[in-house]
Amino acid sequence: MKKRTMPNVFIGICEALLVLLALLFFAPVITGRIINIGNIAGFAASVLLICCLVFRSPFMEFVRNLRESTAGRIAVNGVLAIAAAAMLLAAVISGFMIASLNIKPTDGSTAVVLGCKVRGNSPSLMLKRRLDAAYDFLTENPESFCVVSGGQGDDEEYSEASVMKSYLVSKGISEERIFAEDSSSSTEENLEFSKKVIEENGLNGNITIITDGYHQLRATLHAKRLGLNYGTYSANTAFWLLPTYWVREWFGIIDFFVFK
């Protein structure tokens, strides 16, 4: 039996980790029929890297042959430069995403809970976790009020805000502490319309944004643009959803700076 060398063992471990990562990106498709730029890009990149490792000998031979011409060298170096820049950008964005996870809220701040998918009159798994985080925050801060924010999608029977309010009330939060904003359809509108609710009802203008941790950076960028003083309080994202939504958020942050 041929003894495996350390480089081959390392490559085998990398292949196994990439297979696991590909499965994590594919898991939301099976568990929730979730398909977005996050799991499409993540799954495609994982499969591409797996193929490069599994067929590394012919792949390296192809690259060597390509580099023998000037045009080939330019193409290879260009691809490598783009890949390096993309990885650096992803790392920088991820660093800022991690930093925004828990920005200390001010005392008495108004909780703004960002909406997510509802199924009938029940919150989706992700929204339920946001609402559980909101319940914890409101329990820890009995003087704070709350704005639940989210409109009604074409495939939703009820507005996200109405489902969110009902859920919090069912858990014991007083209805008088909860204000519903049921017109928004994006993170930007969540914050913009919630600001109007806060101003119209004389609530504390300092807010605490409650959403998934991966989402906090983009939410705080919108809040900053609106002139809001904010803290953050993050919900925990299910582990099989986190890679998909983390990668999707890279594109969301790029979109914010390029197109907003």
Supply the CATH superfamily name of the largest domain: HUPs
Helix content: 55-70%
Point out poorly predicted stretches.
none
Oligomer: single chain
Number of separate domains: 2
Number-wise, the strands total: 7
| Known CATH architecture of the largest domain | 3-Layer(aba) Sandwich
The geometry reads as elongated
Task: Please state the structural category.
Answer: alpha/beta
| Chain-averaged pLDDT | 94
What does this 3D model show about the protein?
It is a single chain. By secondary structure, the chain is an alpha/beta fold. It has two domains: 6-99, no CATH class; 110-237, HUPs (Rossmann fold, 3-Layer(aba) Sandwich). It has nine helices and seven strands. Strand 6, helix 8 and strand 7 (229-235) form a beta-alpha-beta unit. Helix 1 (6-32) runs antiparallel to helix 2 (37-54), helix 2 crosses helix 9 (242-259) and helix 7 packs across helix 8. The termini are far apart. 35% of the residues are buried.
Question: In brief, what are we looking at here?
Answer:
The protein is of the alpha/beta class and 260 residues long. Helix content is 60%, strand content 12%.
Keyword list:
single chain; 260 residues; alpha/beta; Rossmann fold; 2 domains; 7 strands; elongated
Topology:
Elements: H1 6-32, H2 37-54, H3 56-66, H4 70-99, E1 110-114, E2 118-119, E3 122-123, H5 125-140, E4 146-149, H6 160-170, E5 178-181, H7 187-200, E6 206-212, H8 216-225, E7 229-235, H9 242-259
Parallel strand pairs: 1-4, 1-6, 4-5, 6-7
Antiparallel strand pairs: 2-3
